[in-house]
Design goal:
The protein contains 4 helices and 2 strands. Strand 1 and strand 2 form a beta hairpin. The radius of gyration is 18 Å and the shape is flat.
């Protein structure tokens, strides 16, 4: 799983000498991918999630860059805005998935 996730650019370890180092986000991705694989979702299927995450980040970027410009380059306010956008995006994504699977859940 690890080598497949690396090959697919889900994780990008940094080299510490000759050894790969995985940061906390990489470790979270590996952990979640392993759990999903145990439920029958293989890493190649995870590409849809990665693409959705990239599109979401693309929506946030101009908003955050505008905030940086408006605050004369002050990063603290832009970071707060980015954190809020990420949190709201997570909530919306969860609500949308629940809405979409509502019918399936009622059939079970």
């Amino acid at each position: 799983t690890l080598s497949e996730l690396e090959r697919m650019k889900f994780i990008r370890p940094q080299l510490m000498g000759n050894e790969p180092f995985y940061d906390e986000i990489d470790r979270d991705i590996v952990h979640l991918a392993v759990r999903l694989a145990a439920l029958g979702i293989q890493p190649r299927v995870l590409m849809a999630w990665r693409l959705a995450a990239e599109r979401e980040a693309d929506v946030f970027e101009p908003i955050v860059r505008t905030a940086v410009s408006a605050n004369r380059g002050e990063p603290a306010e832009a970071r707060r805005l980015l954190d809020e956008l990420v949190a709201l995006g997570e909530e919306l994504r969860t609500a949308l998935v629940r809405s979409v699977i509502k019918q399936l859940r009622s059939e079970l």
